[in-house]
Design goal:
homotrimer; 207 residues; mainly alpha; 8 helices; globular
Chain lengths: 207, 207, 207
């Protein structure tokens, strides 16, 4: 029940982030709706297809469909006011990736995959909706360029498997690993931490 | 038999539309062939992969392969004359999306999915070949921006499920739903109807 | 054993080619790693998903994961020196596509598919990692524009099925078909052979 509420909040945040990017690109109503969908369910769909869970999970649970359509309509109607919700949306989104990461890991574990693959699939679940959104909008995916986002998911995933060595309580592991994702992202944004640059200043001038 | 002819006409139109976009991007012969393929079978492949029908259906029916290779060769050879065929191509393409929508819906129904998901998969079957074509050619997908295209598929899908409540004859439903897609698209193009804009004139100036 | 070494060399070359493109786009460390992965395993993943082999094969063999992470780290650290390795990388890459093509064909054969589909899947295995890399980096895929690359794979694939009519020894067919891919690509690059242009000089001026 608790998890379902978080899941819905995450879906709302992902769908709205899709709407905002699509409006920026001046898409029509149909395009906006598709981008909202893809952002919310794209990561999980890619995971399901690669692991072999078909039909992909959102297709058998209408809750997602209604939540995404509702969020998209809400975001389109109130788009001039949505700046006021920016902090809430950021929080929902961050909670969402925490949850999606752990759900992705557990899906991969059930399929009997290696911990490193599980962490990769957890990160994919959380991040690739945004990647597909950016590709459809003809942008280089933002998470490849400047945000501590995937890195937070990877840290959460490592926590998950570290805890599994010492703790028997699955719910506890689930919550702590998700919290590590959320805390890492919040701290990184608050203190403007980013990955160490691969490029020297001289490189930057050349860019 | 009748359906198979329509299916082939739709495939021809989709493949040729791929060739024309690829030639615009000055791709080489191999690139042109791939884009023709992807445009014709991309939507159905995505549907099959998400529903779990594998190998995806065009791989087990060589007719598609021969039709696409033939259409691509034809379009490359006659590309300076193809302007004369524009009306025929538009008709084939419109008939094609009508058929692809209904085929997608029925595939999803057989997999036991919810009507809304079926309509989404029907629309995906008809439209996502073009979306993948545009992504491979580094364009924002045209159907997200300005055409009554997906909307026609969605209306046809709604007709399909409305009729199912009252009519027992599946062939009748199939034909009427497909005809709604075709008629919507033809009327929209003839009378220059598009989705109501989400943007105000002031927004347009800012773009 | 011999095949495994070639496979690893191909994976190294593909991963490094991904790193170089990602560095050009000034991606952060995470983006570089993802592009390295996608370039190395993207073609095989797409093949597996379309044929229905799930979980996709690299997920059940950790060798790939370690080789890709190692190659990516190596390429990032030594990126200023990597120009000296350009010839080796070109060779690895060419050997890699030879091998990947034949592996793709045999995977499709086991799934009972038609020879033309098998050749298409072999070519996809060898080439589509690079295609997805280019899409994620917001470029029109390079193999659609100017290289004898896919064409080499198609020739190798045709050799494979031609030999199967006359030769019983599968290992022999495997090696010869792979060698045809490799030789075609080497000769094409050495003698600057490309596909005959679809465009007239007049077209070029207009471009």
């Amino acid at each position: 029940m608790f998890i379902q509420i978080i899941d819905i909040l995450g879906t709302v945040a992902f769908a709205i982030s899709g709407v905002l990017v699509a409006l920026d690109k001046r898409m029509d109503a149909f395009g906006v709706l598709i981008i909202a969908f893809v952002t919310a369910v794209g990561g999980g769909s890619l995971r399901d297809v690669m692991v072999g869970i078909e039909p992909v999970s959102w297709m058998t649970n209408m809750t997602y469909v209604y939540v995404i359509i509702g969020s998209a309509a809400f975001a389109v109607l109130l788009r001039n006011k949505i700046a006021y919700l920016r902090t809430s949306l950021f929080l929902f989104d961050t909670i969402g990736i925490g949850l999606y990461t752990v759900v992705g890991i557990e899906t991969a574990l059930i399929a009997g995959l290696h911990p490193i693959i599980c962490i990769a699939l957890g990160t994919m679940t959380a991040c690739f909706g945004g990647v597909i959104r950016d590709i459809l909008c003809n942008e280089i995916p933002v998470i490849f360029r400047k945000e501590i986002y995937a890195t937070a998911c990877i840290l959460g995933g490592m926590t998950y498997f570290l805890l599994r060595k010492f703790v028997a309580d699955n719910n506890f592991i689930f919550v702590v690993a998700g919290a590590v994702v959320i805390a890492t992202r919040l701290l990184a944004v608050k203190f403007k931490i980013s990955l160490p640059s691969l490029y020297k200043t001289g490189d930057d001038l050349a860019a």
